[in-house]
Amino acid sequence: MAQVNVTINGKVYRMACEDGQEGHLQGLATRLDGMIDQLRGSFGEIGDQRLTVMAAIMAMDELAEANRKIKGLEAENRSLRETRVAVIEHRDQIEAEIARRIELAANRIHEIAASIEPKD
């Protein structure tokens, strides 16, 4: 387990994370600190705890919106896959019908050619 010191709202916190995840954790802390700074800019000094709670709610709102978009994209992806399967099946049917008609035409051409060939 790796140890990382992150600064949020001017306070340093020592946190543990999986090895190799230090940069990711630092980035998350930086984003949270940025949200708190943004709120402080909008509302002024309203208390550390309140700013932190508001930032957490903002983060949860972003997460909820991202999850909503993911579900929408998953549904769209399922629909596109189903459409793809239907299109492939339709194409296969059309190709089979074309092949059947070509065979009929070839047989008809062969019959016509046989009927006009001189008989010895």
TrEMBL record:
Keywords: Cell cycle, Cell division, Coiled coil, Cytoplasm, Septation
Coiled-coil regions listed in the entry: 56-83
Protein name in UniProt: Cell division protein ZapA
InterPro entries named among the record's database cross-references: Cell_div_ZapA-like (IPR007838), Cell_div_ZapA-like_sf (IPR036192), Cell_div_ZapA_N (IPR042233)
Function: Activator of cell division through the inhibition of FtsZ GTPase activity, therefore promoting FtsZ assembly into bundles of protofilaments necessary for the formation of the division Z ring. It is recruited early at mid-cell but it is not essential for cell division.
GO cellular component, one term: cell division site
Organism of origin: Methyloraptor flagellatus
Domain of life assignment: Bacteria
Summary of subunit composition and partner proteins: Homodimer. Interacts with FtsZ.
Lineage, top ranks: Bacteria, Pseudomonadati, Pseudomonadota, Alphaproteobacteria, Hyphomicrobiales
Gene Ontology annotations of biological process type: division septum assembly; FtsZ-dependent cytokinesis; septin ring assembly
Compartment list: Cytoplasm
